[in-house]
Amino acid sequence: MIIGIDIGSTITKAVSIEDGNMTRKLKTKAVDAVTSAAGAFGKMILENDIKMAEIERIIITGAGATKIKNDLFGIPTDQIDEITAIGIGGMFLSKQDNIIITNIGTGTAIIEAKPERIAHLGGSGVGGGTILGLAKKLLLTSNFNGIMELAASGNLNQVDLLLEDIMETDISFLNREATASNFGKMLDTARHEDLAMGILNLVYQVIGMISVFAAKSKNIDRVLVTGNGSNNPIGKHILATITGMYGVAFEYPQDAEYTTAIGAGLSCSMRG
Hints:
The protein is α/β, with parallel strands linked by helices. Helices cover 38% and strands 24% of the residues.
């Protein structure tokens, strides 16, 4: 059994890998790197009644992995870079071997993954951290569920400048309801609900567009969305709108938020 651990800046995830398949998964709130890794590992073995002798190796990755210098609990512990882990995990979950992966976490990374090559194409500092940071200042809350509840009844017309505000006809393939400028209108009547929707629209439009550019640069018409931000229903709706305009489909594999941890665990067998 291999344990893969993704030590993120806000959430740490762990999975168990047996015979090339994920058999268990869990996530915990991240604190410092060592505490996060030890806590996730301890929770994994205690909740699943795993014996230490069953574990062959631990593979760690993510933002906090470099801070762990020694083996955990006397079990051989290796590190793998996060980009490679995302690529391996994405290919495993999608059952595809030539893909663009958009991994949405605190920020956003875009990866090209093939069996012979995993490459970091770029990314953006815009991601889940942007949502929480802007909401803390504009909405006076950093509770993610609360932000989502507000956004569900938000009206973008109160916040964003739309093409219909400045044009009488469609432009090219863009209809008059398309965004001309995020937060470019900002009416005095805008409610917290409208601001919350504006924040989500800003973040997912940026993510969607850089994903489209990456996919088209590689002549690929689909993007695999992974990471914590892959589970956002409002974000999915925004990305679906981008699909309608640009013809690049966004796909959401099961267990997408565990992609990096899965890739870490699987990397051991790939390296032999």
